[in-house]
Amino acid sequence: MSQVAEPGTTRQSQGQSEVHGEHHSHGAQGTFRSYMTGFILSLILTAIPFWLVMGDVLGDTRTTSIIIIVLAAAQIVVHMIYFLHMNTKSEGGWTFLALLFTLILVVITLVGSIWVMYHMDQNMMPMSPHEALQRP
């Protein structure tokens, strides 16, 4: 049995109004307090590396670099949680799964590139003049 829409009205299939017509908030919007918490954490996570570099607090470049990388990773997490509202519950976990997939691809690409460049450097570097004289 077909349904006929009256003039001036639109007929929607069952379930379509839930997808397109209505917008429900599923807790994705943050509160003022959560935004301020994220902002303050971002300021702290930016100020600490700035202080470490400008004040030459540690004196060791390698240790300073490692601390800056760790704080940068922490700041990425703060931005994803407080500003992008990413968690395992949002959109049925699909955003988190997409993030994991992206991170895996980035890690594979970076590690593979570094591995290839290292082996190219080891296997294709020109010989020193002393090594060239020693070859038959």
From TrEMBL:
User: Which Pfam families does the UniProt entry name for this protein?
Assistant: COX4_pro
Keywords, in A-Z order: Cell membrane, Electron transport, Membrane, Oxidoreductase, Transmembrane, Transmembrane helix, Transport
> Where do transmembrane segments lie in this chain?
35-54, 66-84, 96-118
Locations listed in the record:
Cell membrane
Q: Topology with regard to the membrane? A: Multi-pass membrane protein
Reading the lineage from the top rank, the first entry is: Bacteria
Instruction: Return the InterPro entries for the record.
Output: Cyt_c_oxidase_su4_prok, Cyt_o_ubiqinol_oxidase_su4, Cytochrome_c_oxidase_bac_sub4
Cite the residue spans of the region called Disordered.
1-28
Biased composition of type Polar residues is found at 1-17
Function, as annotated, reads: Cytochrome bo(3) ubiquinol terminal oxidase is the component of the aerobic respiratory chain of E.coli that predominates when cells are grown at high aeration. Has proton pump activity across the membrane in addition to electron transfer, pumping 2 protons/electron.
Q: How does it assemble?
A: Heterooctamer of two A chains, two B chains, two C chains and two D chains.
- Family the UniProt entry places it in: Belongs to the cytochrome c oxidase bacterial subunit 4 family.
Q: What is this protein called?
A: Cytochrome bo(3) ubiquinol oxidase subunit 4
Gene source species? Microvirga terrae
